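Before going further, learn to read the protein records used in this course. A complete example follows; check for yourself that the lines match position by position.
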Amino acid sequence: MTKKQETIFGSLPAGPCYIFDEDCFVRRAARVRQAFGEKVGLCFSMKANPFLLGSLPEAIDRIEVCSPGELTICERIGADPSAIIFSGVNKTLPDIERAMDDRVGTFTAESRMHVDLLNACAQKRGIRVPVLLRLTGGSQFGMDAGEVLDIIRRREEYPGMEIVGLHYFTGTQKRKPAVILKELLRVERFLQQVETECGFLLQRVEYGTGLAVDYFSDCDETADHTEEERLDAIAPGIRALGEKTQLTVEMGRFFAAPCGFYTTQIIDTKKNENIAYAICDGGLHQLKYDGQIQGMQIPVLTHFSGQTAVPAPDDSDSSEENERWTLCGSLCTTADVLARDVPLHNLRPGDRLVFHRTGAYSVMEGMAVFLSRDMPAVYLYSEQKGLRLVRPSLRTDGWNTPVSLSAEGRAEL
């Protein structure tokens, strides 16, 4: 943690909050660009963190949008619609019509139904839209190879669509570069199969690497190094495919994870059956790391007492002020454990804990409204613009208030 960050975290108001470092986002994107080269496009999957969308680095060419709400965010911040890849497994007719009226750049098709809807909507508007057909990786997403091939063979039946390429993504947190390199080979072979069997050249590929991010304290000193090693290990395969087709690499977690911090204050401390517990004003509904199960792994964190960062105790120091703590949140469930057996020095109520590497998913993926707790404030930070509040803390205790419904069935608050 830098001195500037220490100053910021030491002066924050009470209550949980998220801080996202825009400069870190820019550096991360630049590092990926350096690894993959200029011929390969980069796409930010905004579901990882829509608050970073307004800080999109120049190195990132496209935005993956997977819901009507995400499209609304793009509209509000004035994102270039031609840069949007409108994806997602649940595309309804109104969703597609709206996206077409926004003139988004590309659509993906997850099923035959999507193909029919896209074609009909485009024909109704007298336009032809670029479409990527999603090839399944063995889950509910995408279509079998045979289905994709059949749609391509029958492409003349879809005059509202220009089938421009392939979409392929199988999952996240892939720690072995060999897995990603094997997927790249599958994509290349399928492109060849399409050309051989259908006499058709797919011009574009959107590929999600799912490249892993390291979160926990045993990775603290090596996280960036290890992640960069993985990045460099897959780069030759990415560059090679980029020479054969117009390749866009989609990532969300890998871009955003290191850019975020989550802060929470200690409200109470106690010992139960010789275990030291600290109760925080946040909890697992606000802090979510991939793979964390009831605090069985220790996230990278910094302990603040007042405005001062407290160094982590040396394992050899067994003084009374140095204890190992179980950090718990505010929820009425035994599952609300952020970390167990964390060594901390002189932890007291009022102290603040800052959890690192929370730039991806934490702010969007947690059980945000469980127990009707307030949702944390959100800040953006950069050296040039300083610290800015972009979303105040939100109350959730009024969300069960009776409301009237519009003709479309939407709540009129």
Summary: DSSP finds ten helices and 20 strands in the chain.
